[in-house]
Amino acid sequence: MNIGEASKRAGVNSKMIRRYESLGIIPRAGRTLAGYRRYSETDVHILRFVKRARELGFSMKDIKQLVSLWRNKSRPSSQVKTIALKHRAELEKKLAEIQLMLSTLNHLVENCHGDGRPECPILDELGCH
After folding, report:
1. What confidence tens digit (pLDDT) does each residue in 78-101 have?
2. Cβ contacts of residue 70 below 8 Å, gap of 6+?
3. DSSP helix, strand, coil percent of the chain (3-state; round to 5)
4. What's the number of domains the chain is made of?
5. pLDDT digits (tens, 9 = 90+) for 6-43
6. 65 in a domain, yes or no?
7. What CATH number does residue 40 fall under?
8. With CB atoms counted within 10 Å of each terminal CB, which end of the chain scores lower, N or C?
């Protein structure tokens, strides 16, 4: 299938397919005699794999490793789990940071009168750091 078909079937735009190829995340596509890219069902599956990994927030570096491990049927699952655990820890850290920001912002919003007075704890907080 051509890049347009692969794009439609995988749910990934053509520009991203070319980018994934250039980064070595997916193998280089075969070419027709006219030079057009040709993709297989396996290529579409890998593109879907990459799309899902991106949705879960994995980095391109991690996705490249995960695709390589997926293609290697003799890989130890411990390698895959190590990547997933590292990513989970990064997400948990980001979540804790966001929760702290939200808590602080909630406190500031609750303590701001939001009326005609010039005093504003939100601006005070932003100005003191």
Report:
1. 999 999 999 999 999 999 999 999
2. 46, 49
3. 65, 5, 30
4. 2
5. 999 999 999 999 999 999 999 999 999 999 999 999 99
6. no
7. 1.10.1660.10
8. C
